[in-house]
Amino acid sequence: VQLVESGGGLVQTGGSLRLSCTASGFTLDEYKIGWFRQAPGKEREGVACITNRNGGTYYADSVKDRFTISRDSAKNTVYLQMNSLKPEDTANYYCSAFGFRRGQGTQVTVSS
Q1: Closest Cα to residue 112, out of 35, 14, 25, 42?
Q2: Residue 54 and residue 107: Cα distance in Å, rounded?
Q3: CB–CB of 77/4 below 8 Å?
Q4: Exposure b/e, 35-63, CB count within 10 A at least 16 = b
Q5: For the residues 16-37, what does the mean pLDDT come to?
Q6: What is the C-alpha to C-alpha distance for residues 102 and 100, in angstroms, rounded to an integer?
Q7: HEC string of 35-66?
Q8: Burial class (CB in 10 A: 0-12, 13-18, 19+), 103
């Protein structure tokens, strides 16, 4: 039973990345899923989440209109599409099935 993130990397300011959060051993649709990030020396920040009931989405003000969270039930995966990336988006991003599991994270680095 685990969550595995992928899709991080190095990108220039203004670029895009799509992060994936894939579950094994359980069904993501049964959980509210959140993406979080943490940069060295900074507090953890909740970036986005998607509910398990009606698929409602919520975003931090810092990423609103730039990031999009979505589900692919067939692939048991939640995505975080990140556009118009900024250097301040640099962090380790991880996903969490609320109250159940979290992944190890994937590093996103945005160069200026």
Answers
A1: 14
A2: 30
A3: no
A4: bbbeeeeeeeeebbbbebeeeeeebeeeb
A5: 96
A6: 7
A7: EEEECCCCCCEEEEEECCCCCCEEECCCCCCC
A8: buried
Beta bridge partners of 44: none
Cβ proximity of 12 and 111 under 8 Å: yes
The structure tokens listed for 48 are 């986005």
**Per-state percent for the chain, helix, strand, coil, to nearest 5:** 10, 55, 40
- Looking at residue 85, its pLDDT comes to 98
User: 100: closest CA among 47, 46, 37, 27?
Assistant: 27
- Joined tokens for residue 88: 């301040």
Instruction: Give percent above pLDDT 90 in the chain.
Output: 96
The structure tokens listed for 107 are 């590093």
pLDDT tens-digit map of 35-93 = 999 999 999 999 999 999 888 999 999 999 999 999 999 999 999 999 999 999 999 99
